[in-house]
Amino acid sequence: MKVEKTDMLPQKAEIIEIKQETKTNLNIKTFRLRFKDRSQRDNFQFKPGQFMMVTVFGVGEAPFGFASSPTEKEYFEFSVKEVGLVTEALHNLKEGDIIGVRGPYGNGFPLESTEGKNIIFIGGGIGIAPLRSLINYVLDEENRHKYKKIQLLNAFRSPEDTLYCDDYEWWENTENTEVKYTIDEPCEGWSKCVGFPHTLIVEELNYELPDTRVFTCGPPIMIKFVTEKLRELGIDPAEIITTLEMRMSCGVGKCGRCNIGHYYVCKDGPVFTLEQLGEMPDEY
Ligand SMILES: Cc1cc2nc3c(=O)[nH]c(=O)nc-3n(C[C@H](O)[C@H](O)[C@H](O)COP(=O)(O)OP(=O)(O)OC[C@H]3O[C@@H](n4cnc5c(N)ncnc54)[C@H](O)[C@@H]3O)c2cc1C
Ligand code: FES
């Protein structure tokens, strides 16, 4: 990949909407952006699973996956969990503020080779953000016919930690699509699933082999148990796809900050199959 100097320049983007997602101290907000420059706006293209480097001017830069679908032409979105310097600064911004965006970077989810398959999405917490970009892409009316059955299992700590509630009605009412929500522990008023996602795969998803591809993103511990369960069920590791979130600096394979073995997560990833992860040193 040849990186032009201009690919590294942050472009000014306006925050046109901020949505507070969670109602707990697991503070997550979704930012809707639009480039200031008209031609930048018209020419910007990304794939679900790719990421961007976001700058809060005077504070710093951090990588975030796209949370909206590229079928949405008027804006793009990312969701941010507040954990430190840059994410806190982002959370303090207001609608109308300007931030810097460079990218898109990374490989993205395999879209074409997923066509014709059943899809299962298993997401946990902020890990649902990159999946939402793909979910909204495959459920878009232009694309829905390319895929067979679609099943979603979204896991949250509690009802107050649920994300993307505005999408649920659309997701649930799309043909041949099944949506499940689970929280860690039972609580009053919650009538949906309870339990960690790996415990619900058989009972709730009743997945259809053989043509099934699974996309799973979430906390490392969730990925560990989910992928173990999927392996136990006989799903081919090449059909289990996840994303890695290493610390990054350049985002384009130049600085060496994100490497695992001979892979640069920013350039060769962040999307990997379980088969590829099995070939990597255990550093993620
Ligand atoms: C490809 C990619 C996509 C990402 N997508 C999202 C997203 O959609 N939404 C989101 O909220 N976050 C996402 N992240 C993680 C996000 O980049 C970090 O949370 C952010 O860089 C933290 O910056 P900070 O300055 O607020 O934290 P810092 O002040 O730098 O650190 C605060 C704490 O977070 C830890 N931390 C920082 N970066 C990472 C990291 N990459 N992985 C694990 N722990 C880290 C630090 O060790 C420290 O404990 C993504 C990361 C990558 C690499
Ligand atoms: S972040 Fe610089 S090489 Fe990946």
Overview of this structure, please?
With 284 residues, this protein is α/β, with parallel strands linked by helices. The chain folds into 2 domains: 5-105, Translation factors (Elongation Factor Tu (Ef-tu), domain 3); 112-243, Nucleotide-binding domain of ferredoxin-NADP reductase (FNR) module (Rossmann fold, 3-Layer(aba) Sandwich). The chain has helices at 38-43, 85-91, 128-139, 168-172, 197-205, 220-232, 265-268, 274-278, and strands spanning 11-20, 28-35, 51-56, 60-65, 76-81, 98-105, 118-124, 150-156, 177-183, 193-194, 212-217, 240-243, 259-260, 263-264, 271-273. The chain has a 7-stranded mixed sheet with strand order 10-9-8-7-11-12-15, sandwiched between helices. A 6-stranded antiparallel sheet has the order 4-3-6-1-2-5. Strands 13-14 form a two-stranded antiparallel sheet. FE2/S2 (inorganic) cluster is lined by residues 248-251, 253-258, 264, 266. The site of FE2/S2 (inorganic) cluster has 12 residues, from loops.
Quickly describe the structure:
With 284 residues, the chain is an alpha/beta fold.
What descriptive keywords fit this protein?
single chain, 284 residues, alpha/beta, Elongation Factor Tu (Ef-tu), domain 3, Rossmann fold, 2 domains, 30% strand, globular, binds flavin-adenine dinucleotide, binds FE2/S2 (inorganic) cluster
